[in-house]
Design goal:
The chain is α/β, with parallel strands linked by helices. It is built from six helices and nine strands; from the N terminus they run αββαβββαββαββαα. Strands 7-4-9 form a three-stranded mixed β-sheet. The chain has a two-stranded parallel ribbon with strand order 1-6. Helix 4 packs across helix 6. The radius of gyration is 18 Å and the shape is globular.
Length: 200
């Protein structure tokens, strides 16, 4: 089951969030994901089902939904740029997030379903390097400028209700699922940008 880092929320948590960090989701999305996690574990106990719960951290890349303003921030920004709009940052942009390129995550996702040692495990997937939102914006603007010669603008919006620093531990994804962080954020964004330009 692909859960989410949103299940950690904030509460008394101090990042990085390990798989044993108490969960205090602070939005409906995180609450729904946590409810599914609880249901899966109970079903496993009642019916002897095999399960593995993954908590990915901001997976991005080709074929991501860039048209939904509630999806991953990197895709949202690309949509804005393609529509000649400035990218938006809520608050001061110091919020920190970990990102994983989709191609680095696919084999670990498969391994979670087939490797015996993944059974009945909860695993943070990827996210071995974290960035501030400001850093992400700079990297994407560099990618776009190198391609088009134009540098996108940024608009700062009022701070919103969100976790400031959502950074995971990631060793279990390496040890159990074979995760490898092969793709830098700039290289991943460059690949995603080439794909995004071809979209309607």
């Amino acid at each position: 089951f692909t859960s989410s880092m949103a299940t950690y929320g904030f509460g008394d948590n101090n990042p990085p969030f390990s798989e044993n960090t108490p969960q205090f989701p602070m939005d409906p999305y995180g609450i729904a994901k946590l409810a599914c996690e609880m249901d899966i574990k109970i079903a496993g106990e009642q019916h002897g089902l095999e399960w593995c719960i993954l908590r990915p951290h901001n997976v991005y890349g080709d074929k991501q939904n860039i048209w939904d303003k509630y999806r991953n921030v990197l895709g949202i920004w690309m949509y804005y740029i393609l529509n000649d709009q400035p990218i938006t940052i809520f608050g001061d942009g110091s919020q920190r997030r970990a990102f994983s390129y989709i191609d680095d995550s696919l084999e670990p996702l498969w391994n979670a379903a087939v490797k015996k040692k993944a059974s009945k495990q909860i695993i943070n997937l990827g996210g071995t390097k974290d960035y501030s939102i400001n850093d992400c914006a700079i990297i994407l603007k560099d990618v776009v400028q190198e391609d088009t010669g134009k540098r996108p603008q940024t608009v700062l919006l009022e701070k919103r209700h969100e976790v400031h620093t959502a950074v995971p531990t990631w060793q279990k994804s390496i040890d159990i699922l074979g995760f490898e962080h092969k793709t830098s954020l700039k290289d991943g964004l460059a690949k995603m940008w080439e794909w995004a330009k071809q979209q309607p």
